């Protein structure tokens, strides 16, 4: 019903551009994680340990300068939004979704706790994946397990593999459904 009420501009331009943007952000994050895996294999300095004496403003945290830093910020926001959407889409937590003007206090507290845990894990998540090296205001690089090569390597490989699998499954499923609909085999 929402698709039928959308304007032609929204249907023909807005939805495809949003889909291309999401595909591009997912692809870029997978590429960055794959490069981080290669860095892990070749250089020990790629481990997400704390940065000692970071000279803010004098040295860029990105190889591509200002553009790379802006891309890191966009990717971190994308990871934040996708993790919240994924959290609320999981079958275990769909009941936690707030309802308009009918949300009990316990559900509100549960949502606050969930969002607090997700937002606290985001800096460690982005550092572990190699998307950014910046510590923000906390020294998240001092966790002992961030120095374990096998945990970091498997985490990065799992993220890249599962994200690629989901991306391929969604894209090929959508293309397959459109082909079936185009050839009239859906009847």
Automatic annotation (TrEMBL):
Its main location: membrane. Keywords: Cell membrane, Endocytosis, Endoplasmic reticulum, Membrane, Receptor, Transmembrane, Transmembrane helix, Wnt signaling pathway. GO terms for biological process: receptor-mediated endocytosis; Wnt signaling pathway. GO terms for molecular function: transmembrane signaling receptor activity. The chain crosses the membrane at residues 12-38, 58-88, 108-125, 145-168. It holds the Pfam family LMBR1. It is found in: Cell membrane; Endoplasmic reticulum membrane. It is a multi-pass membrane protein. GO terms for cellular component: endoplasmic reticulum membrane; plasma membrane. Belongs to the LIMR family. This is LMBRL protein. It comes from Grallaria varia.
């Amino acid at each position: 019903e929402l698709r039928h009420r959308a304007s032609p501009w929204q249907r023909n331009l807005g939805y495809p551009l949003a889909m291309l943007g999401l595909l591009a952000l997912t692809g870029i994050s997978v590429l960055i994680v794959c490069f981080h895996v290669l860095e892990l294999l070749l250089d020990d300095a790629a481990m997400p340990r704390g940065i000692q004496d970071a000279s803010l403003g004098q040295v860029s945290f990105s190889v591509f300068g200002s553009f790379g830093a802006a891309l890191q910020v966009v990717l971190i926001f994308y990871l934040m939004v996708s993790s919240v959407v994924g959290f609320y889409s999981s079958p275990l937590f769909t009941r936690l979704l707030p309802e308009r003007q009918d949300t009990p206090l316990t559900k509100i507290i549960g949502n606050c706790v969930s969002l607090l845990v997700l937002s606290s894990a985001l800096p460690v998540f982005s550092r572990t994946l190699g998307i950014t090296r910046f510590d923000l205001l906390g020294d998240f690089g001092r966790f002992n397990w961030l120095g374990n090569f096998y945990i970091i390597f498997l985490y990065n490989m799992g993220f890249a593999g599962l994200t690629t699998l989901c991306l391929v499954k969604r894209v090929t499923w959508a293309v397959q459904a459109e082909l079936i609909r185009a050839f009239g085999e859906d009847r």
